[in-house]
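Section 3.1 - Work completed
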Amino acid sequence: MKRGNLLYAQSGGVTAVINATAGAVIEAARRRRVKVLAGRNGIVGVLREDLIDTSAESAAAIAALRHTPGGAFGSCRFKLGTFEANRAQYVRLIDVLRAHDVRYFLYNGGNDSADTALKIARAARALDYPLSVVGVPKTVDNDLAVTDTCPGFGSVAKYTAVSVLEASLDVASMAESSTKVFVMEVMGRHAGWIAAAAGLAGKGGDDPPHIILFPEVPFVEDAFLARVQATVDRVGWCTVVVSEGVKTPDGRFLSETGGRDAFGHVQLGGVAPWIAQRIKDRLGLKYHWAQPDYLQRSARHLASRTDVAHAVAVGRAAVAYALAGRSGVMPAIVRTSDAPYRWKIEPVPLTRVANAEKKLPRSFIRRDGYGITERARRYLEPLIRGEDPPPSGKDGLPRYVRLKNVAVERVLPAFEPEA
């Protein structure tokens, strides 16, 4: 393949460590003397020919991406249609890549992003354009197929477990005359990986969280409320962790708001206050609830060192695969040992990742459906180990970087992609 430029873009919900991957991509490409462009706001920016020249950034700024949360180049939720029904969109995409001599395309995201990368790889072949396309894994939901874990998950898992531990100490202190039940909602539409991570806060017995509600286990209100009451009677208080994707026995989300996102997914939100209100109405117990939402995925100050290492490794591997001419692949994390924890990176076809979803195994959920098993604990614990704190300024706040994001000059007619 003719040597050219590399294009990197971020997609979907960002994480505490997606920028660590971005920095690793740029540093690895620079070592190989390959220029890196970035799509502003993901594939949408590529279609608009809204590209960023990362060569305008200093080595120090790129290195600081390792410690900076959010998406340095902007992200998006945009679904490419099929090649047959949206040929003009793919032709535009290839025109943009050709105009800027892009021969390598790295798309950093989750399930839908893997699907996008696969579609682009196939479209490039159909349009006879030499392009190496590599999907780069990222998602706090930990639901990408094949890979043992997903960069972004280890840090949100650590944040969740620490938050449950600390908040439960607060509740225990106040339970005698105040709050009896604390309900914390976590992300997870169909897969309960983040909810399961909350179980690391306790070691068993009456340690919190006393109840975890998983998307994989149907919610039965009477059984749940009986469990809450029994816990309060025995312990004096109760901590509940609920995934946003919890469903009724007939398959309805408890927290459907009626809307849908750009990928057609049902919009969720507000299951914690709903659960808390049922506790008050039927049990008469005083409660508090929390919905960390963006806080759980942006908490770089509490990132897992293991997670950061994963994020850096997949970025470096993605560059190596692309420059070697591989296309339609993704660097996957392969666990080789639990104790001691060991892992490696291997390429897997995007055909095995796109449109697949890895749910929490039933063997990770206790028989009663309200907690995690020792097998789950063995899987989860290594992923939250270690700290990788950002540098701190004199004002006591983390020193995060803001890139210049210098735009590349457009050479093609304007184009506005249709969702």
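Second construct:
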Amino acid sequence: MMKELIKREEAQGMTEYILIIALIAVVCVAALRLFGVQIKDLIVRSTRKIKDETQGFAD
């Protein structure tokens, strides 16, 4: 009986971790959908600025 109780608690803990990970994944997907274009534009602008600033060093 004690072994069965311990197994149930372990399964409950694992289920809680799975739910937390699933929630984090949903939040990440929602953030990417909401801010994806802005993040892409920021990265493109940063890349261009770095390229422009360091262009003379490549020669």
